[in-house]
Amino acid sequence: MSAEATNPEAHAEMRPELRRRGRTRLDLRRLGRAALLGPASRDRLPDAIGHVAEAHRAHHPDADLSILRRAYLLAETSHRGQMRKSGEPYITHPLAVTLILAELGAETTTLTASLLHDTVEDTDVTLDQVREEFGAEVCFIVDGVTKVEKIDYGAAAEPETFRKMLVATGNDVRVMSIKLADRLHNMRTLGVMRPEKQARIAKVTRDVLIPLAERLGVQALKTELEDLVFAILHPEEYEHTRALIAAHAGDRDPLPAIADSVRAVLRDAGIAAEVQVRPRHFVSVHRIARTRGELRGSDFGRILVLVAENADCYGVLGELHTCFTPVVSEFKDFIAAPKFNLYQSLHTAVAVPEGYVAEVIVRTRQMHRVAEAGVIALGNPYTTGTPPEAADCEEERVDPTRPGWLSRLLDWQQSAPDPDTFWSVLRAELAQDREITVFREDGGTSGTISLPAGASCIDAAYAQYGEAAHGCIGARVNGRLTSLSAPLSDGDTVQLLLAHDASSGPAADWLEHARTPAARIAIGTWLAAHPDGAGPAAAAPRAPLSVPGLRGGGGNAVVDLPDAHVRLAGCCTPVPPDAVAGFVVRGGAVTVHRIHCPAVAQMRSVGRTSVAVHWRATADCRVTLLAESFGRPHLLADLTEAIARQGVEVVSATVEPPVEQRVRHSYTLQLPDATGLPALMRAMRDVPGVYDVSRA
Fold first, then answer.
1. Which range (63-72, 127-136, 520-529) has the least confidence?
2. Cα–Cα–Cα angle for 619, 497, 477, nearest 5°?
């Protein structure tokens, strides 16, 4: 994309691992001449993309290369005369991006769109022309990676471009594959830019593109991007790490000998396996050095064992742990429990007689391909579906590869119309590097909710119900009542309890426990619209979930304001015969407080209109009671039984997690007669273990 260019050899020293793997490198000057001269004949591929075709055929032997020839000719013709800042013909950029994807195994449609990815943005070629020549699928991908016009969006152009790209990625993950390869080539060729521009691009790469590469599982791109960003943003630490690696290169590396020992063990066990030494990249060495201090020879790489079948992975693990001394704390099974970015492998570490500890990764060859290329290794996931329309496609495409984090991102971005909010929340969302799955009460695959690690019941409520979660009054986790602020763990079963009351809304402290952008945006929007805490007067009632009998409104309170919606304040829960005061709030509703409630002084200080309030002759009322107790078995059942014996209806109940053996219970109760409240509170205090009961 409108690439920042430089000397093609810039930062070459930063990628020793690429040279070790023997990756083909583009000779940009030679390709530039080939691009300007064109093909020698019309019946074969142009010389400039011959090596792209070779890399593509290595993964897809039967691929039809004619469409690549047509795409290259259109790209070369449309970019002819355009130069990069280094003086190279511009066509070398889409060629380099396409080669990166071809080496990772991208299918033909992705490579075709990659060759054309800058044509609509930087030349006179239109989307209609791309659609007519190459079909709706290529057109959709090209449009997805095309930047929005800066003249239209100004300073918001970059966040809005990413928003557009992410929405397109939700319909076709190949859009982001091209963007990541595009950014990698631009980062490789960033040296001629001003230092401040290099730093700006590197920061966006660090905060947005690298986390996206990690989440899409494209480790081959992620690791090189990390090294390039590391060199720009932390030059001193980068130079120190480079010196460590250079010093290690002159020492005897113990890993090849360890790899030979592993080969011998597996050969004797009859397990067919390929054993490699995988050098760590710069950032990985830097992290290990910060964690372990002085590095030993085995810290500069890892042993990789590739086998044919899943069962062989565990066979290899058994042999390693039998013949070497395992480091138990280093064992991780990502085959039985894959990471949320498709990654699968067994990780372990073994100590060898020479005194070294070697980290070992065991995976199948298919797992290795997915670990390196992520979603790119999936090929075309839409071969059985209907191709999307181009830019004007209104119907969301069904994407079998869309992970939970991407679905969440697509949901909350709709509620963040402000570019600054979108940009800041996007970075915060991508900073979450782990994910958990919780189950709804009904279970099953359709009953799962994907959340970032550390998410609470509040996040689960907004993920499941959207804005209807404003009325959430409690939750059960694994069958036990708990507070909405309780954090969730992977595999928990969650039942969320919603109120009937249309005026219900979130509390301000929910923001302290919400981790997902969708929850934080929804809560913040509601609180901004209801600074007094009152809900909308005419909101549609929510359907009950599992708490029957919840009645809303002002109960027995009557105000001297015809047709006003009356609401008893949740902060002080007034009941007859409390002395009360009413105040008109937004929407014409009246909130009723106990006269000594701190909110009364606040209402008067901001000039809220006071309204006279009296109680009806009927005696039923609703009240919230807090019970403080010592934890013991069956306490909740005994408290509920004591309440039931008083003829009182339990509207909702919340039990907070024990703290130093003390438990806090919150009950919202419907009393048939307000005069029975003192007797009810005494009955609850009489329950063994309860040491205090008070009004909320």
1. 520-529
2. 130
